[in-house]
Prior knowledge:
- By secondary structure, the protein is mostly helical.
- The protein has one domain (26-256): Vanadium-containing Chloroperoxidase, domain 1 (Up-down Bundle), CATH 1.20.144.
- Helices cover 70% and strands 7% of the residues.
- Strands 1-2 form a two-stranded antiparallel ribbon.
- A hairpin with a 2-residue loop joins β1 and β2.
- α7 runs antiparallel to α8 (169-184).
- The longest helix is centred in the middle third of the chain and has 27 residues, at 120-146.
Amino acid sequence: MKRIAAPVLLVLSLFVFTSTCFAAEGLMLKIDSDASDLEGDYKAFYLNAGNLLELGGGIVGAGIIANTKADREIRNYYQERLRSSATYSVSSVARVPGELYVTVPLLLAVHLMIPQDYGAVDVWAQKSLRALFLGGPLGLVLQRAIGAERPAHDDSRWRPFKSSHGLSGHTFVGGVPFIMAARMEDNIYLKSMFYGLSVLPGLSRINDDQHYFSQVVLGWYLAYLSSSVVDRKTDGKVSFAATPQNGGLVLRFNAIF
């Protein structure tokens, strides 16, 4: 078996090296174009008052949930009444897209190696990467700035810079590719399916008791805003808010696609 594997690996290596050499000019053009696009994304995300207002609304909404009993009650209800061997099986698959070292290399491979003739596939991968690089730094800052803990360690109250779990990174990373696919899709059924899939990585974190509801919501909302800025379409809008009312908490989630 080893005698067969060695020549095969050699041939594959030569093929990849040769293909890369021939495509080097095209790759450099892609990279240069991507850098230019990302510069525009950063300006549209971090220097746009409307976008920052929407981001602030999401942060405030998540903060209200995190600093009341709502997060703990949602966590207890799910773990005690909904979690099962079936949800664990689904979660073991749903968490995979949220793995940074799985999703980013796959998107890079698709974007850099697939010819531009394939159009939509390459555009989807490129836009997904841009959204990840756009929202990723802010996500890291929010994780640490919020300072909330995981459910197994403490409650979800915000304690700035105490910990680094204030936002679910799995939810952000796993949500972006599906949200981008949904925004690029015109068929309402496929669009709805992709949006539904974008939620699953976050649900897996709740199922595995790794994050509170507020932390998952904030991760998904950041993924949505980042994808929206990169896609630069106005045919869809999502807003999220949580407000105290009559001694309770009212959640408002509006979506127009």
